[in-house]
Amino acid sequence: MPNLTRRTLLAGGTLMLLPLPGRLFAQGPASGRIEALIARMTIAEKAGQLSIFPDNLRTGPDVVVNPEMKAGKDAMEAKLRAGGVTGLFNGSGVAAGRRLQQIAVEETRLGIPLIFAADVIHGWRTIFPIPLGEAAAFDADLAQRTARASAVEASALGLHWTFAPMVDIGRDQRWGRVAEGAGEDVHLANLLAAARVRGFQGRRLTDADAMLACPKHMAAYGAAEGGRDYDSVELSEATLRGVYLPPFKAGFDAGALTTMSAFNDLNGVPATANRKLLTGILREEWGFRGLVVSDYTSDAELIAHGFAEDGRDAARLSILAGVDIAMTSDLYNLHLPELVASGAVPVAVVDEAVRRVLRVKQAIGLLDDPYRSLDAGREKRDVYLPSAQALSREAGRRSIVMLKNEGGVLPLAKRARIALIGPFGADKANVYGPWAFPRDDRGVSIADGLTRAGASFTTVKGCDVEAPIAGGIEAAMAAARAADVVLLAVGETANMSGEAQARSLIDVPKAQRELADAVAAAGKPVVVLLRNGRALALEGAVRGAPAILVTWFLGTQTGNAIADILFGDHGPSGRLPVSFPSGPGQQPFYYAQKTTGRPRPPGMMPEFTTGYRDAPNDALYPFGHGLTYGQIEYGAVTLGAPRLAWNGTLTARARITNRGTRAAEEVAQLYIRDRVASMTRPVKELKRFERLSLKPGETKEARFTLTRADLEFIGQDERWIAEPGAFDLWIAPSAASGTPARFMLDRA
Ligand code: GLC
To answer: Does the beta carbon of 499 sit less than 6 angstroms from any atom of ligand 1?
Structure first.
C-alpha cells in the first residue's frame, strides 16, 4: 500500500496532528493499571467486558430500542450489575447515562466504566446529508466538519463512540446501504473515510467532545451478490485489497481505534469469523491495535451461515478470528467461561481482547473519568447549535448535483409562479434519510424552504410514493397549467434506502413516473427534485425534464438548502459519487471498469463486444458529473514532462475558464489509465480532484502532482506494485469526458 496516510491526507484535507494508535497505547503506568485489572478479573467479568447491548435501560424520546430488546430491562440491569456489560448503544441523554454509569462504577465488583455508543452516521439531533449525498460535495474538509459537529452534539448527549464512518465501497445501487458510504470510487472513499474519522475523533480522544470512530463494515459488505443486503461476497484478492480494503486502511491511518466486522460471507468465510481478515490483514499486516466489535448478532449468524454448529461454536470461532466485542448476541457471556475452562479457547486470547477494550476505554479517558461526556451543562449548550444548523444547510447545498439545466431553466426568479408537485413537496418525514433517528419536527421540507425564501407557490401531492391518489394527477395538471414552472419532488422514502432495503429495480416508483408524464403534458418547464439514497435509473418525463437536481436526503435543512440553489443564492457544485445508469437493469455499474478483450465503443451496440443488446454501456450521467450555473470550459492537459522518473514527480495542469455570466464552483478531476500491466487495469481511476471558484470570465489553472505511488495496484503477488510503461491522464469534469495526455513511467 503506498504511503496512503500522508499522501491521502495531504491530497484531500488538512493533515492534523493525529493521536497515532501507537502513542495512545504506549507502555507505562496506564498499561500497568490495565494488567492489574485483568489479573483481578474473573473469566465471567472478562466475558462481560466483551459484551455490548442495545440500550433498553433508558426511557424517553432519546432511546431507539431495537424491538426485540424492549423486553428484558430487568435482566439487562442485573447483567450490568454483575459486570456482564461493557457498553450500551443507541440510547443517549446525560441524566440516564450518569445513572447507568453510576451502577457500573459503584455497584459492580471492579467498577469498570461503560462505554456509550450509537449510530451517529450523519448527525444525532441536527441531521446532515446522508454520507453518499455529502460525498457529492467532493470535499474532505466539509466531511470532517460535519463529523466534528455531529460528535460535539452526540457527545453532549453522553455518547463516546460512533459506529461510523461506514466506508463500504458501493458499486451496486440495488444495495440500500450505498446511502451510508462515499460511493463507488476508492480515492474519494479513502479521503472521506480519513476525514470523517478525524472529524469524529477531534484533536484529542480524551476531550469531552471527542467520539471514537469505527470504520465499518469489515469487509466488502458492499459487494453483496445482486446488491442483496447480507448476501455472499466473492472477490479476488486483488479486488478485495485494491478496492474494498483501502478506505478501512485510510480510516485506521487517520487514527480510528475500532472497527466492526461485517455480516457477509467473504469468499466462503463469514467476515465475523474470518481470521485472515480480522487478524492476518488487520493486525498482523496493518498493525491495527484497536478493537473489533461484531455487527449486530453477526457472531450468532455464523450458525445460519452454516459455519458454526451452535452458539458455543460461534463464540469460539469469533473470538479466535479476532472479534473482541460481541454485539447483542450475549454469546461471549454465555460461552467464553466454558470455552476457556475446556481449553477450546486459550485464556490468553480472551485476555488480549479485554486488554484491547480497556486500552480503548483508557484512550478516551474513561478509566480516569467515567463521567466524561456526561455533563448536563453541555447537554443544554451544545445540542441544536446554530452553527450546526448553518453547517447542515451548507452541506445540504454542497451535496446537490445538477444533472441538467436545459434552456437555463434554473435559477428561478423568486417572483415565478411555482407549482410544487409530488409526494416529497411538503414531506417532512423523509428529509432526514436512513440512520437518522428523528426525535423532532425540525426538518425543513421543500415547501418550508420555498416559504422562507419568499416564493409564491401552490403545493399538490399528486400521488403517494408508490400508489396513485384519486384525482391527484388532475389536481397536479391544473396546478401546472396555472404556474410558470413546475418543481417535481419525486424519488424514494428514507426506508427505501439503508439497511435491509435492497431494491431489485432502482427506478422512481411507477405512480410517480405516471404523475411526471401527466404533468409534463401541461407544457410548462419542469425541474425535477430527486429524493434518493442511491443512484436511480431515470425514465420517462423524469428523465426528459429540462432540469434535474439530485437532492439525496439532505437532513434538517433540506428545504432551505434546496431553495438556496433553486433561486441562485448559491450555485450547484455537487458531483456524482455514483454513476447514474442508462437503465434499471444496468447494475452493478461503475466507471472504473475493466476494458475486457472485446471493448464496445461508447454508445454503440455492435455484435460480439461486451455489453447488453438492449442498453448501452455508458452511464446516463457518469461518476463525477455535475453542472454549475457557470459555463465551464477545460483546456488541454499540460504535462511537466513526458516521463515520470521512478522516484520522481510529474505535474499535470489544465486551464479552466468560466465562459458564463454566473460564478461557479468547479471540481476538476484527474484520472489515469495504466495502458499495459501485469494485471488488467480499469479504463480510468480518479487520483486527484480540486475545487476551483470561478467568477464569470475567470480562468484558473488546475494543477496536480503525481508520484509513482499514485500508479500502484495490487499485483499477482497480492502486494502493491507499480510497473514502468505508458499511462493516460485526464483532467476533466467527469469520468466520461476529456482528452487524455500520455506519459511514461520510467524503470527504477
Ligand atoms: C446494524 C448495522 C450496523 C450498526 C449496528 C448497530 O445492523 O449493520 O451498521 O452499527 O447494527 O446498530
So the answer is: yes
Query: The sheet that has 161-162: what strands, in order across it?
Result: 161-162, 115-118, 87-89, 51-54, 326-327
Q: Distance (Å, rounded) from C-alpha 414 to C-alpha 711? A: 49
Q: Is the CB of 230 under 6 A from ligand 1?
A: no
Beta bridge pairs of residue 671: 686, 730
pLDDT beyond 60 at 138: yes
Please identify, by atom number, the ligand 1 atom nearest to the C-alpha of residue 119. 10
Summarize pLDDT for 423-433 with one digit per residue, the tens: 999 999 999 99
Q: Which of 55, 64, 119 to mutate to test the pocket of ligand 1 (most atoms within 8 A of CB)?
A: 119
Q: CA 501 to CA 228: how far, in whole Å?
A: 8
User: In angstroms, what is the C-alpha Rg of the chain?
Assistant: 26
Centre a 10 Å sphere on the Cβ of residue 504 and count the other Cβ atoms it contains. 12
For ligand 1, the distance from its centroid to the CA atom of residue 348, given in whole angstroms, is: 29
Kindly state the cell numbers that stand for 34: 490495565
Ligand 1: which of 295, 299, 323, 328 to mutate, most ligand atoms within 8 Å of CB?
295
In angstroms, rounded to a whole number, what is the distance separating the alpha carbons of residues 199 and 234?
Answer: 33
Q: How distant, in Å, are the alpha carbons of 574, 630, 632, 663 from that of 696?
A: 19, 7, 10, 5
pLDDT tens for each residue of 574-594: 999 999 999 999 999 999 999
Residue 603 has a pLDDT of: 63
Cα–ligand 1 centroid distance for 296 (angstroms): 6
DSSP string, 195-236: HHHHHHH-S-TTSTT--B---EEETTGGG-GGG-TT--B---
Q: Which residue minimizes the CA distance to atom 3 of ligand 1?
A: 295
Residues 6+ apart with CB under 8 A from 62: 91, 92, 93, 96, 157, 439
* Catalytic pick among 139, 168, 295, 330: 295
User: How many other C-beta atoms can be found within 10 angstroms of the C-beta atom of residue 32?
Assistant: 10
Looking at ligand 1, which residue's alpha carbon is closest to its atom 6?
A: 296
C-alpha cell at 537: 435509473
CA distance 554 to 564: 13
Grid cell listed for 295? 455487527
The pLDDT value given to residue 79: 96
- Please answer whether residues 158 and 55 qualify as being in contact, where contact means their C-beta atoms are separated by less than 8 angstroms: no
Count of CB atoms situated within 10 Å of the CB of 381: 11
Catalytic, 209? Answer no
φ, ψ for residue 143 (rounded to 5)?
-60, -40
- Residue 248 has phi, psi (to 5 degrees) of -65, -45
pLDDT classification of 61: cutoffs 50, 70, 90: low
Cα angle value 499/504/509 (rounded, 5°):
95
Structure confidence by residue, pLDDT tens digits, 644-691: 999 999 999 999 999 999 999 999 999 999 999 999 999 999 999 999
SS3 content of the chain, % helix, strand, coil (to 5): 35, 20, 50
**For 552-641, where are the alpha helices, taking DSSP H only?**
558-566
**pLDDT tens column, 215-252:** 999 999 999 999 999 999 999 999 999 999 999 999 99
Reported confidence tier of residue 105, pLDDT bands at 50, 70, 90: very high
What is the distance in A from the centroid of ligand 1 to the CA of 497? 14
Question: For residue 101, what are the CA distances in angstroms to 96, 110, 114, 714?
Answer: 9, 13, 6, 47
Distance separating alpha carbons of residues 484 and 471, to the nearest angstrom: 22
Q: In this structure, are strands 265-266 and 269-270 parallel, antiparallel, or unpaired? A: antiparallel
Q: Is the beta carbon of 296 within 6 A of some atom in ligand 1? A: yes
Question: Measured between alpha carbons, how far is 523 from 541 in angstroms, rounded to an integer?
Answer: 12
Could you give the angle at which helices 347-363 and 331-341 cross, rounded to 10 degrees? 140
